[in-house]
């Protein structure tokens, strides 16, 4: 019987630990997002092709979700388009270097900061929506976007960013 009483405390301890470590994880994500990297040709090509394969699967899942969520497909398409534009800008801001071992690149800090901030805002928004749901609060004017197709819009933004950045790196590597 005492073990059953420890289970809720254990769950609360894990949630508290997650909340304490979350800022450190976001900081690590930001630092990794702007770290200097070696351009390895086969890894960049595989990443670009796998991301290209992910786009039709993402569009299919957004279309499927549009049966239940009204604006799922348009939000996903807008997010994908904005992500591609952000990926192009990020590639334009990236510093490329050539050394004895090949090509290296250093992504700009601003797109990395923007994407990390977006991850943090989505986590906060999800926690806020969960709290509102548990508390039984009335929905606000903009909480509908957060609950519905907005999730697919943010996913499209990240997918579009990765797609544009990977294919841009692939093209840049081929020119070198």
Overview of the structural elements:
- By secondary structure, the chain is mainly alpha-helical.
- It has one domain.
- It has helices spanning 2-33, 41-65, 72-93, 109-135, 143-147, 150-175; strands at residues 37-38, 95-99, 102-106.
- A three-stranded antiparallel sheet has the order 1-3-2.
- Strand 2 (95-99) and strand 3 (102-106) form a beta hairpin.
- It is globular.
Short structural summary:
By secondary structure, the chain is mainly alpha-helical. The chain contains six helices and three strands.
List strands and helices in order, with pairings:
Elements: H1 2-33, E1 37-38, H2 41-65, H3 72-93, E2 95-99, E3 102-106, H4 109-135, H5 143-147, H6 150-175
Antiparallel strand pairs: 1-3, 2-3
Helix pairs in contact: 1-4, 2-3, 2-6, 3-6
Label this structure with key terms.
3-stranded antiparallel β-sheet; mainly alpha; 176 residues; 3 strands
Shape: globular
Give the N-to-C terminal Cα separation.
67 Å
**How are the strands of the largest sheet arranged?**
1-3-2
The percentage helix is over 70%
What fraction of residues sit in β-strands?
5-15%
Q: Number of folding domains?
A: 1
The biggest sheet amounts to: 3 strands, antiparallel
* Record field, number of beta strands: 3
User: Low-confidence parts, pLDDT < 50 over ≥5 residues?
Assistant: none
Order of secondary-structure elements: HEHHEEHHH
The averaged pLDDT comes out at 87
The helix tally amounts to: 6
